[in-house]
Design brief:
Keywords: Membrane, Transmembrane, Transmembrane helix. This is DUF4293 family protein. By secondary structure, the chain is an alpha+beta fold. It has one domain: Butyryl-CoA Dehydrogenase, subunit A, domain 3. Helices cover 65% and strands 12% of the residues. The protein contains 4 helices and 4 strands, in the order H-E-E-E-H-H-E-H. It has a 4-stranded antiparallel beta sheet. Strand 2 and strand 3 form a beta hairpin. Helix 2 packs antiparallel against helix 3. The protein starts with a helix and ends with a helix.
């Protein structure tokens, strides 16, 4: 059911994870050499250098898409709250993996340019943290519904 509050949280979670795909995650500029490096969900965008040996950056995008898909699937599993909780746990792992991959590849990017300068985390980097919070809230309300149904079964 879309009118339940956990469904709204899950919809916002899916939108946040899809926004990770569109927004830049990390950016670093070397003022002396005019080199720029931007981390997105599917790769590095470089100006003035070639980012070699950075690894499969597309993994961030794949994890974000998987997390959004699991959240969308979780919305329509309202008849089985146990399955919703299981999908919420899977989504927790996917979001944490997305955050880990973002940290890993931003550290790889730090090593490509001047090590004395620090890169900046951009808006897209913080969205999985918001998604993590929304996932925890959705799971809390799903558990509350389950407890309400069990208490009604005891009254019968």
């Amino acid at each position: 059911m879309i009118q339940r509050i956990q469904s709204v949280f899950l919809l916002l979670l899916a939108l946040a994870m899809l926004s990770v795909l569109a927004l830049p995650l990390w950016h670093k500029v070397d003022g002396l050499t005019h080199q720029e490096l931007t981390l997105t969900a599917f790769g590095f965008q470089a100006q003035g250098l070639t980012p070699a040996g950075t690894g499969p950056v597309w993994l961030i995008g794949v994890l974000a898409i998987a997390s959004a898909a699991v959240a969308a699937l979780e919305i329509f599993q309202f008849r089985s709250r146990a399955k919703q909780l299981l999908l919420g746990s899977v989504n927790l792992l996917l979001i944490v993996s997305t955050l880990g991959a973002m940290f890993y590849f931003s550290n790889k990017g730090e090593q490509l340019l001047n090590l004395k300068l620090e890169g900046q985390f951009l808006m897209g980097f913080y969205l999985p943290t918001l998604a993590l919070l929304l996932n925890l809230l959705a799971n809390r309300f799903i558990r509350r519904d389950e407890q309400l149904v069990r208490s009604m079964d005891r009254l019968r």
